[in-house]
């Protein structure tokens, strides 16, 4: 059972259904949500859309973006982070789109999937677990949970353990406002910032930074506006702003609201605020106040009830990672849950969901807060210093490479991650996807990837750098061929892994850099174990 039909809930439903699980999605509203929300995904997130079977459709409603620029108050760029058109996950490192288009696409795929039932206009009011109560009982209400931010609670590294360990046959009962009770073997709370499911399991959001009020303006403009193809952040403490061209003739601005300023005051100022970019006529699509929060839930699950997306974490938009975090949750959980519910895998497989996802989500939120502070913090004097300081720092090649590489997913040791101590070991990181669709060669399940060809060493273009970029290349003399150790081979066989001997130069180089001759890949393409050379 998925509660919430936003992109995270719909992608979770599609991923589960592809693994043979029947899913009901319950949604309070009817139809696609028209408010201004996510506009950006990175390459790892688009790879997840690929896993959900919607990447071709997504390509038709999105466009690759050039990157992120920082501008001063006079709109003069002083730093730029360029994004490649082919990242380590096989897709453009930065993609822009309009969320209602994405939701319409996902809904079309959901409607075509016989395993998924979408019920709209239904209100979940309560969840009864098989044992009678959750480990920390909460009341399911639609109160604005953000008000609870700042209350004392365990951090993302702490929190209560998942309560109980219901067997897959046990049933939760999801109670609707109508009195109807819907049985469910698991519940995925994808019901947003004011999550009813979060309240039901007694979890709370913990603030990582202050809320900020912004004013979001979406327009259509018949005359193309001049843009560099990426996102512009105006680092002006007096009126911080974001500007980007979405797709087609659609553009977005976000303006930070000053203390005491009202949405209607800002609405009246829109023409003068956007005239520096759009001097001619525009068609106004939306102009709304939006509060950005930075928070993470103290608990992410209880038994087989899980929190995903905004129900588990709220990310300020400054690095475009909010929706991607929700998709990562769905991808991390769906294959494990399907294995437990459908294929008889041990219940412990889902235990690592929070420990794998929470540190990553928290780091992203802190990164967004840092960029937000760079855009909006300080006085005029600080803003004047920011320009030479940031530009100078980014001239150091190692700093620039690090800033442009973004956050690399790297899970610690756990039930499904056999981390060794070698820093180069790719275990816990995603296997690169050399080109869109390559994951299909590995199948939907576990895979044992080995070297299938003599290596072709040589310089690689930037877009084929491995995800742990920055580590020195092991060099062409390090052989990655050889027999797969029997223990790894046995584990792979037990898991029904497909063996793939790759001849792809990107993957061969990645194996070589990690000093491994075989890797066991989880269905989400994270390296679970490796055989060192
Ligand atoms: O990091 C990038 O390349 C873009 C980040 C981004 C995307 C969308 C909105 C935003 O404020 C930042």
UniProtKB/TrEMBL annotation:
Source taxon at top rank: Bacteria
Biased composition (Basic and acidic residues): 417-426
Region (Disordered): 146-171, 417-483
Gene Ontology annotations of biological process type: 3-(3-hydroxy)phenylpropionate catabolic process
Domain FAD-binding positions: 2-125, 179-366
GO MF assignments: 3-(3-hydroxyphenyl)propionate hydroxylase activity; FAD binding
Record keywords, A-Z: Oxidoreductase
PANTHER family according to UniProt: 3-(3-HYDROXY-PHENYL)PROPIONATE/3-HYDROXYCINNAMIC ACID HYDROXYLASE, FAD-BINDING MONOOXYGENASE
Name assigned to this protein: 3-(3-hydroxy-phenyl)propionate hydroxylase
Species of provenance: Pseudonocardia endophytica
């Amino acid at each position: 059972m998925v509660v919430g039909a936003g992109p995270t809930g719909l992608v979770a439903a599609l991923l589960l259904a592809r693994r043979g699980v029947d899913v009901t999605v319950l949604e309070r509203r009817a139809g696609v949500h028209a408010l201004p929300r996510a506009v950006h995904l990175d390459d790892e997130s688009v790879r997840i859309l690929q896993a959900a079977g919607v990447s071709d459709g997504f390509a038709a409603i999105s466009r690759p973006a050039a990157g992120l620029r920082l501008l001063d108050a006079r709109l003069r760029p002083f730093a730029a982070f360029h994004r490649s058109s082919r990242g380590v996950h096989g897709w453009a490192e930065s993609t822009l789109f309009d969320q209602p288009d994405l939701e319409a696409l996902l809904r079309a795929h959901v409607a075509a999937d016989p395993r998924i039932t979408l019920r709209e206009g239904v209100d979940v009011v309560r969840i009864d677990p098989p044992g009678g109560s959750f480990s920390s009982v909460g009341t399911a209400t639609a109160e604005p949970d953000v008000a609870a931010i700042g209350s004392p609670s365990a951090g993302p590294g702490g929190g209560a353990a998942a309560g109980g360990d219901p067997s897959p046959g046990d049933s939760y009962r999801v109670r609707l406002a109508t009195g109807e009770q819907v049985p469910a073997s698991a519940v995925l709370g994808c019901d947003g910032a004011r999550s009813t499911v979060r309240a039901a399991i007694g979890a709370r959001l913990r603030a990582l930074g202050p809320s900020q009020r912004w004013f979001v303006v979406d327009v259509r403009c018949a005359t193309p506006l001049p843009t560099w193809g990426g996102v512009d952040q105006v680092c002006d403490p007096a009126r911080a702003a974001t500007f980007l061209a979405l797709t087609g003739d659609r553009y977005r601005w976000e303006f930070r609201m000053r203390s005491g300023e009202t949405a209607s005051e800002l609405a009246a100022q829109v023409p003068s605020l956007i005239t520096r970019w759009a001097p001619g006529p525009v068609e106004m699509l939306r102009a709304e106040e939006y509060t950005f929060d930075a928070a993470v839930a103290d608990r992410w699950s209880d038994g087989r009830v899980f929190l995903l997306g905004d129900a588990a974490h709220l990310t300020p938009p400054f690095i475009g990672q909010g929706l991607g975090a929700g998709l990562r949750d769905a991808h991390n959980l769906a294959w494990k849950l399907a294995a437990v519910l459908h294929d008889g895998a041990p219940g412990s497989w889902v235990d690592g969901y929070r420990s794998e996802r929470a540190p990553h989500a928290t780091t992203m939120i802190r990164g967004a807060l840092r960029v937000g502070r760079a855009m909006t913090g300080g006085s005029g004097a600080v803003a004047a210093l920011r320009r030479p300081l940031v530009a100078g720092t980014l001239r150091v090649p190692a700093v620039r490479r690090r800033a442009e590489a973004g956050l690399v997913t790297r899970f610690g040791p756990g039930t499904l991650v056999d981390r060794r101590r070698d820093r180069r070991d790719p275990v816990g990181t995603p296997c690169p996807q050399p080109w869109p669709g390559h994951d299909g060669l590995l199948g939907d399940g576990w895979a044992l990837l080995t070297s299938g060809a003599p290596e072709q060493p040589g310089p690689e273009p930037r877009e084929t750098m491995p995800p742990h970029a920055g580590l020195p290349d092991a060099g062409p003399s390090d052989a990655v061929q050889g027999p797969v150790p029997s223990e790894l081979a046995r584990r792979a066989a037990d898991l029904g892994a497909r063996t793939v001997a790759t001849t792809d130069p990107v993957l061969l180089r990645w194996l070589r850099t990690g000093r491994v001759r075989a890797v066991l890949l989880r269905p989400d393409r994270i390296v679970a174990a490796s055989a060192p050379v």
